[in-house]
Amino acid sequence: xxxxxxxxxxxxxxxxxxxxxxxxxxxxxxxxxxxxxxxxxxxxxxxxxxxxxxxxxxxxxxxxxxxxxxxxxxxxxxxxxxxxxxxxxxxxxxxxxxxxxxxxxxxxxxxxxxxxxxxxxxxxxxxxxxxxxxxxxxxxxxxxxxxxxxxxxxxxxxxxxxxxxxxxxxxxxxxxxxxxxxxxxxxxxxxxxxxxxxxxxxxxxxxxxxxxxxxxxxxxxxxxxxxxxxxxxxxxxxxxxxxxxxxxxxxxxxxxxxxxxxxxxxxxxxxxxxxxxxxxxxxxxxxxxxxxxxxxxxxxxxxxxxxxxxxxxxxxxxxxxxxxxxxxxxxxxxxxxxxxxxxxxxxxxxxxxxxxxxxxxxxxxxxxxxxxxxxxxxxxxxxxx
Length: 385
Prior knowledge:
CATH superfamily of the largest domain: Pyruvate-ferredoxin oxidoreductase, PFOR, domain III
Helix content: 25-40%
Order of helices and strands: EHEEHEEHEHHHEEHEEHEHHH
Low-confidence stretches: 1-9, 368-385
Shape: globular
């Protein structure tokens, strides 16, 4: 893993005059949620006598479905300090990173940079990483990159809330996060004013206050030491060309048909991934035909396997597959690599099928599936005639 930034440049200042908080979220799907979190931070901090502002990262516009994006809240002691903090394009070092989907802890890649980046990359030494998750801190930490500086991991209770651009799923994720922030940053956001801000945003809903308190009481903290996490992630970091080395005009080389981008790995957009039961695959080609990202490849035996580095986890393959439970969508955090699986099935079918059952929670036994698949395929063919 390439070094990100010397730890000395990420030290906490002797006297804090401002703090920076980033929210990492799924583009479009969680846009409203990210906005509400950053705005609630600023509102609560202002009630405590500070000043602040919330903004999105310019490089993430336009957003794309599921692709990681960021919004920020900067809170300062006064207007002068706020202007000094805002003189930057975006905070390169933050006090707190908030991931509102726990699969983002495997690393994020947006089109604002090249290559997957560790979730903790911008966090200063002894800062915080807050993750909304139903998993334990140890399970979440096991999916992060091997850490280069100490920080504290906080688990805010609750699964990923897909509150999108046009529809907001009001499950109080934003208020629980605000309560967690009041717990770790009491000098900037008091619990009392976090509750006041939540009630104002919720237009008097008393449940919002209870959710702030829940976030404050139930968020668990786990100190993370240097070297914890996993070193198994693929290294995907590249150097951007400077303006003196760019080609004339705006030239973007197109990919040839069937060729995949060697730099942009789409799995950063994935919350679930498909696993395939090759024993029940009828080689109908539906997954290969309907995949919007061309991430299926035909095997020598005519099966179709997933190229996980190109898969965004949209689930279309599982929807169009005519065989029940031949393709099953599974929580991304159950996996530790992006290796293709057909060779494992070819080498040791019982072992692969045991793995398939463990991951998917469904039987790999092909009995009865062939008849069901034939009936489904026959009905489709008859309809076409």
